[in-house]
Amino acid sequence: MSQKFERVQAGEKVFDWLLLLFSIGVLFEAYRIDGIPGLNSPGSFPVGLALVMLASSVVILISHRRKRRDPRIRNAFHEAQVFLYEHFQPHIVVFTFLAVAYLAAIVWASFYISTYIFLAVTFIYFRQGKVVSSLIISAAAIAVIYALFTLVFRVYLP
Amino acid sequence: MFKPLLTSLAIAVGSMAMAGSVLAEYPERNIQATIQWGAGGATDNVARSLTPHVEDILDTTMVLTNRPGGTGVIGMNHVMRQRADGYNLLYGAENPQLYPLMGLADFSYDDMHTVNIIGQGLVVIAAPADSPFDSLAELLEHAQENPGELRMGGTGAGGLPSTVLAMVNAVDELDVRNVTFGGDGPGITAMLGGHIDFMPLSLAAVGEQIRSGKMKGLAVLTKEEIDALPGVPPITEALPDIESFLPWGPFWGVFVNQDTPDDIKATLEETYEQAVANEEFGDFMQNFGAEVLNLNGEEAEQYLDNWQSVTAWAMYEADAETLEATPEELGIPRP
Amino acid sequence: MSDTFSYLLMAWLDPQLLLLTALGTLAGIYVGAIPGLSVTMAASILISFTFSWDINNALALMVGIYVGGVYGGSRTAILLNIPGAPSAVVTAFDGYPLAQRGEAGRAIGLSTVMSVIGGLLGTLVLAGSAPFLADMALEFAPRDYFLIAVLGLLLVSTLSGKSLARGIFSVALGSTIGLVGMDMVTAQPRLTMGSMELMGGIHYVVVMIGLFGVAEAFYQLHNLTKVPVKQKVDKIIPPLSMVLKYLPLSIRTSIIGVIVGALPGTGGDIASLFAYDHAKRTVKTPSSPFGEGAYEGLVAPETANNAAVGGAYVPMLTLGMPGDAVTAVIIGALVIHGLNPGPMLMIETPHIFWFTVGNLALANIFLLIFGLTGIKVFSKVVEVPKALLIPLILVLCVVGTYSINSNMTEVYWMLGFGILGYWLKVFGFQMGPVILGVILGPLLDETYRQAMSSVGDSGGQFLLALVTNPLSLVLTAVIALVLLGQTPAKTWLKSRFQRN
């Protein structure tokens, strides 16, 4: 476990630079509240927190100097390849896409229909077939959700 | 073989859900009600006591959520941003009528539909039980000798304490440190611990503590002593000039989005009129030293306008500099 | 006196009350365990069904839900590393490693027994010291709340994760998310980037479901094809020797739990954190290193968060002040039933107090029964293949988020936080500090400004108050010690000490 942390993962430096940029963005937003804040003003905490984030992200970046890149990674281009391979595997990308499509569909296709389609499609995709059982399980899941949330908890679903 | 069956099942379930939303009569599901002040405060107490009677009449469940902060702007803003389908109500206090004046928000109750003005309360200036002051006069004297030393509990700009402070400042001088809490409830806790020196509170929130001796009442915002708090002097004893603003007090009401369909507005108005008239609720209000108003429609609008004009002009006379706009600019007529 | 006893035993003898407490406890366990369904939500929805009931029936159901719900969060924390409630965040630190080691049954059994011990001790303390603790809670000034929040955040950033800088970044990030929205004092928009949607702030449950539910679902996609580690859940009932071994620790952490629970605003989440830290500092030879499946790391938070339930009732029954969101709902029920929650409650209606004490004890007995018997059924959830589980988790996250405010925008936010959480997780950031930041950040800001206003906005006066008031001094000293422990000064002091 500790070994893994001493090595920089693929894409880690880029991510930590992004955190630094994010902190600067937050600092800018916090500054817009009331300029340079006093001891007790709406902006004092946001600005303070942004500075803490900025400082800690700088520390994280500095700590990379002491870490080595995974020896198996040869250069920046190879690192990008490893990164894409690790985090953009087809099934992750497809699931993300389905999840976003599902959330978009809820609004115009109603909750239960879009949930049923989402569950059925992801089940079939993840289990590579098994169409009939996937459809049955999705239907059962919908029934349980309906019973629990709509009937018992009386939660309104779109 | 199963597939078409299941697909048709899914479609059936879906269309049932959709048909349901068209056919059913309001209310066909839980109603969300937002309380713009925190738990344990006066608005909270009134809302939570009234709601069960409303639920009985509507035969539904109301989910009450406290959304305190920003002098109630956060809660009111939340309700105004929800769909105008009558499933989101606001339990509010008097503060929104001062939002434009204080520059807190560009909306007020004029931008919502008033379902009911439930009632109005009295204000008492309370202090911890071991406070060195026994009356408002003593407190004022101390504050004038040591300006900016006393800690007053507040609920944010435009909250009841700051309004009362403005009235006092309109006729006298009171320079204090303003410690802001999320509502009456946390303010009372802080006062019980002696972390603030005094706080103007609605009698509904604090009457019980004063009667049980956990706190002291320094003055009631009335012209005469009241039955609910024997022994607590009227504010006019220390500040005779404040009489011109009296009678004054906070009020509580129920509001709904302006664009709500008319039939739902009518259902709600009818329901609340019936619920507020409930005897049990009337007893509760009396115990809390509050008066039931039960106003809707034209009467409610009139009440709101009148309250706004009296308070806005009082604050304008007290300290015009802290206001973001003058009542005149906002078109608030002089009382 | 005999009256007191009859009220204490009321819930035990009346079959209807017995049934309601049992139902409440069972429902609470499952509601608490489902991520996204919170005890607060269940309590506030269920309470409305009870308005027409007798006050005792309503209170019995609520007590059951509360006790069961606080415990239920630990189930999924152990089995899935997804805490069902904030108070179970810490439970996952050691609970999940235990489950991975194949000791899920033992972990659940131990956490059940310890929760019951904590719950019963909490009830005992409530009965014995309600007036005393209530007086003490009053002594806490805004600056003390501020110090407690600072301490909580400091602890969570140093306790979890391998790198302090990452811990601090996570806490600051969480607090920043918590501050989005209108300022409490001036109602100015803060960090909203001009968006009206964000004026009301970001609900912490939205962030929580995103970070714990969706991020975990995405993370698990990496091992989709791997056969899930079958969590063995045999040997549920822990041997007596084991319970006895951890009894001293559980008594200590129960006391921490009650005290923290009795403070208005702080509940099981902070109590469990404090208890975990206490265990980490006092137990020199844990069964495994902390964070890798130490039984001590499970016992401490689980006793503390259930003991905090008893604690939360203290301010509620003595002052009418809610100790947390659930007791706020219960206060609503008291008012609705014509009772005056407040100082007069214990004078005018002492039976409500004694009934609640007896009822809390009863709910803990049911917790023991249901906690030790239902586990097999429950843990089947874990054996469901990931291919089925992951899409279902996403659907539950959507339902849970939507039901907070019936607002689709919040569901989109939830997904956004899920994706953010995934990347944070990948690069060694912990979710616990972020979520505690979201919850405590606003409290930090609020109490800091109250404390500042109290001393007339003078920084010097503020610092002076921190060391002149005994309570604040203790808290400041503890914070200083924790800070010192993170610097090289610790090793230096240690070496000096050892040389002498």
List the helices and strands and how they pair.
The complex is a heterotrimer of chains A (158), B (335) and C (500).
Chain A: H1 2-6, E1 7-8, H2 12-34, H3 44-63, E2 68-69, H4 76-87, H5 90-109, H6 111-126, H7 131-152
Parallel strand pairs in A: 1-2
Helix pairs in contact in A: 2-3, 5-6, 6-7
Chain B: H1 2-23, E1 31-35, H2 42-58, E2 62-66, H3 73-81, E3 88-92, H4 99-102, E4 112-121, E5 123-128, H5 136-145, E6 151-154, H6 160-171, E7 177-180, H7 184-192, E8 199-202, H8 203-211, E9 215-220, E10 251-257, H9 262-276, H10 279-287, E11 290-295, H11 297-318
Parallel strand pairs in B: 1-2, 1-3, 6-7
Antiparallel strand pairs in B: 3-10, 4-10, 4-11, 5-8, 5-9
Helix pairs in contact in B: 2-8, 2-9, 6-11
Chain C: H1 2-13, H2 15-33, H3 39-49, H4 55-80, H5 91-100, H6 104-138, H7 142-159, H8 164-179, E1 181-182, E2 189-190, H9 204-220, H10 240-262, H11 268-282, H12 295-319, H13 325-336, H14 345-348, H15 350-373, H16 375-383, H17 386-405, H18 408-426, H19 431-454, H20 459-468, H21 470-485, H22 488-499
InterPro entries (chain C): DUF112_TM
Keywords (chain C): Membrane, Transmembrane, Transmembrane helix
Pfam family, one (chain C): TctA
